[in-house]
Specification:
- This protein has an 8-stranded mixed β-sheet.
- The protein has helices at 6-19, 60-70, 93-97, and strands at residues 2-5, 25-31, 36-44, 76-84, 105-113, 119-130, 135-139, 141-144.
- It is of the alpha/beta class.
- A hairpin with a 4-residue loop joins strand 6 (119-130) and strand 7.
- The chain binds zinc ion.
Length: 150
């Protein structure tokens, strides 16, 4: 289970809609083992935005900088989020191919256009991906009221 604040959920939904028809992405920083509390979001450029509507490549410089900043603190990198402009909150075959780290949380925001064409985030789900076993395990999201901690 992960604990994620309503404010952070809204930030992800807004970013997913703003990036439509491309994918947005970012890092999840948190703490805890069995129950992971997401304490902070780190938005990151999608290096493939503008090139491919169905994949993302999180800027590795943001990841390195984030991990460096977290070294020696109580927080760590617990996962990442990205959006699916095709309306599916489930990992794509490409996602599974790129799932090198089985401990990472994959948060996926599904976006679909409203009848008037405006994009709307319709669902956010969390998963753990096991590339070797080609398995996707759902992770429950417990939404908390904690306001955004910045
Ligand atoms: Zn994906």
């Amino acid at each position: 289970m992960i604990r994620l604040s309503a404010g952070d959920m809204a930030v992800i939904a807004d970013a997913a809609e703003a990036a439509f028809p491309f994918e947005c992405c970012g890092l999840l920083v948190g703490r805890g083992q069995r129950v992971i509390e997401v304490t902070r979001l780190v938005p990151a450029p999608n290096l493939l935005a503008g090139c491919a509507p169905d994949r993302f490549e999180l800027d590795p410089r943001v990841r390195f900088a984030t991990e460096r900043a977290l070294r020696g603190t109580a927080e760590r990198l617990v996962g990442h989020w990205h959006s699916h402009p095709n309306g599916s909150p489930l990992p794509s075959p490409t996602d599974l191919e790129q799932a090198w780290e089985p401990e990472m949380i994959w948060l996926i925001a599904a976006v679909a256009p409203l009848p008037d064409g405006r994009p709307q985030t319709i669902q956010i789900l969390a998963h753990r991906l096991d590339r070797e076993g080609r398995r996707v395990r759902p992770v429950t999201i417990h939404q908390t009221d904690r306001s955004r901690s910045g």
